[in-house]
Amino acid sequence: MSYDSENIFAKILRGEIPCDKVYENDHALAFNDIEPKAPVHVLIIPKGPYVSSSAFSADASDAELAGFMRAVHAVAEKTDVLASGYRLIANAGAHGHQEVPHFHVHLLGGRPIGPMVMRAD
Length: 121
Ligand code: 5GP
Prior knowledge:
By secondary structure, the protein is of the alpha+beta class. It is built from three helices and five strands; from the N terminus they run αβββααββ.
């Protein structure tokens, strides 16, 4: 799947639509989810054009990979969930129910997040 530069997170990165910024470094931007599922629900995205976790893992530079993971930690620290705990989720593709085709990690916390995934079969 090729990168669609008109996706909503690309527009946020270009400043074409606003976001509620939580943290930023050279390689990543973090902002509050527009429909939060927990008291803390932050999206962390790389600044580069990567569709999914696979594209990011395969193609990003070491500096981008490190910058992104440092941003995840900075968000956990800034939102004060290090001690209580939190969950990271990265949806990919159709079965992963990824809605926005720009790689992102959800950081959820501020309450017990519950069982990991409901078994459907
Ligand atoms: P996905 O299903 O792709 O893993 O998650 C996409 C997330 O992006 C959803 O949780 C959704 O609420 C969030 N989202 C979609 N559009 C916007 C937006 O314009 N601004 C923000 N801050 N979040 C958005």
